[in-house]
Amino acid sequence: MYRLLEGNNETIVAFLGAGCSSVTEPLAQASHLWNLPHFNFLSTSPALDDRARYPRYYHVLPSENGLNPSRVALMTSLGWRNSLILIQSTDLFNLNAKNLRDEMKAAGLNRAEIIILPDDNDFNDTVERVKDSNIRILFG
């Protein structure tokens, strides 16, 4: 991308990659400035589904949100009604957790609680919250 900004005359037909969503998002946001498609094989952030923000970006894998209907169907078929969703506090995980909770509620599942893991790695309170909830179906 640096060479493109520099005005190099190399012919580039598409962007490929990057390996993780946090690197992919800024590249995908800029790819339309050169009218080049951006294909990715690994990044699964639901934020990348936003066609207005990433108009030339294409997933090869579904986003994390694309897996949520399967998670809901599994819970429904096994008769599981309550679940906890444990996440780190980043957009990648927040967006997917909220989507999963919404889909669970729409399917009539009783409870889908989101617990955000602390940044300081002190999980004692989190473990106590999980125990106190009396819910044994955890998504992470």
Describe this structure in words.
- The chain is elongated.
- It has about 140 residues and is an alpha/beta fold.
- The strands form two sheets. A three-stranded parallel beta sheet has the order 1-2-3, covered by helices on one side. Strands 5-4-6 form a three-stranded parallel beta sheet, with helices on both faces.
- Helix 3 packs across helix 4 (about 90-105).
- The model has no long low-confidence stretch (mean pLDDT about 85).
- It is built from five helices and six strands, in the order αβαββαβαβαβ.
- The chain has helices at about 1-5, 20-30, 70-80, 90-105, 125-135, and strands at about 15, 40, 55-60, 80-85, 110-115, 140.
- The longest helix is centred in the C-terminal third of the chain and has 16 residues, at about 90-105.
Task: Summarize this structure as a short list of keywords or feature phrases.
alpha/beta; three-stranded parallel sheet
Average residue pLDDT: 86
Rg over CA atoms: 19 Å
Distance between the termini: 34 Å
Outline, from the CA principal axes?
elongated
Number of strands: 6
The helix count comes to: 5
Helix content: 25-40%
- Helix and strand content put the structural class at alpha/beta
Largest sheet: 3 strands, parallel
Query: What's the arrangement of strands in the largest beta sheet?
Result: 1-2-3
